[in-house]
Amino acid sequence: MNPEIEADSSIDFTVIQSDPDFLVVDKPAGLVVHPGAGNSSGTLVNGLLAMTPQIREVGEETRPGIIHRLDKGTSGLLIVATTNDAYQFFVDRLSQHKIKRTYQALVWGIPEGSEGIVDCPIGRSSKNRKKMAIVSNGKLAKTIYFVKKSWVSSKVSLLDVELETGRTHQIRVHLSSIGNPVVGDEIYGGNRKNFTLRRQFLHASKLCFEHPRNGSICEFESPLPDDLKN
């Protein structure tokens, strides 16, 4: 058990699917997923513990029930396991690339071609330990993108992005590395003064996975939140 992580019913998030084995949560931008060093409150996990206290015994002590993460400034869908059997099932499926995660990203510039793959390894930046970077001895990472629409006059493009791996800041690092940083991303070059967006334009819009008990295909979608629509 981890008694230090307190339940907090004031945390704002939406549950779009409640199953005996898992929840599918729609996380708003600005909400940290789980407690970290020096930060034990105000996270999604604190809110989840108020809603489903049994997850305290599921998975890792400091991030109970959490299968995969989203950055604080990224909105969208997350799977939360509510039993240990489901947790192990989802962790295994994630490692086998059998959970399909699709994001919508608005990027600066117009990528070459209608789709592409970025598979450069990612690791901690040697120049700034708070940043990730393309490094030769980093962890394997693979990002697939599809250009949905481009605006030549504004020099921006809307992409659907699929992850085969889940490295920290992976989409942001990979898209920045090909010269198309996510709009609004202050860390990886997407913050431009002529754009008023207050966070990175990155939204986890779709999830597709097998049900842990019966193997049926579960698909969920989350529309763009208002701050990205506008």
Query: Helical proportion?
Result: 10-25%
CATH topology of the largest domain: Pseudouridine synthase
Radius of gyration over alpha carbons? 18 Å
The H-and-E topology, N to C, reads as EEHEHEEEEEEHEEH
Q: Look at the structure and name the CATH superfamily of the largest domain.
A: Pseudouridine synthase
In the CATH classification, which architecture of the largest domain applies? Answer: 2-Layer Sandwich
Low-confidence runs: none
What number is the mean pLDDT? Answer: 94
Would you tell me the structural class of the helices and strands?
alpha+beta
Number of domains: 2
Give the CATH level 1 class of the largest domain.
Alpha Beta
Strand proportion, as a percent range, falls in: 25-35%
Structural shape? globular
Describe this structure in words.
It holds the Pfam family PseudoU_synth_2. Keywords: Isomerase. The chain is α+β, with helices and mostly antiparallel strands. The protein contains 4 helices and 11 strands; from the N terminus they run E-E-H-E-H-E-E-E-E-E-E-H-E-E-H. It folds into 2 domains: 1-96, Pseudouridine synthase (2-Layer Sandwich); 102-202, Pseudouridine synthase, CATH 3.30.2350. It has helices at 44-51, 84-95, 170-177, 226-229, and strands spanning 14-18, 22-27, 75-81, 100-108, 115-118, 122-124, 132-134, 143-151, 156-163, 202-210, 217-221. The mean pLDDT is 94.
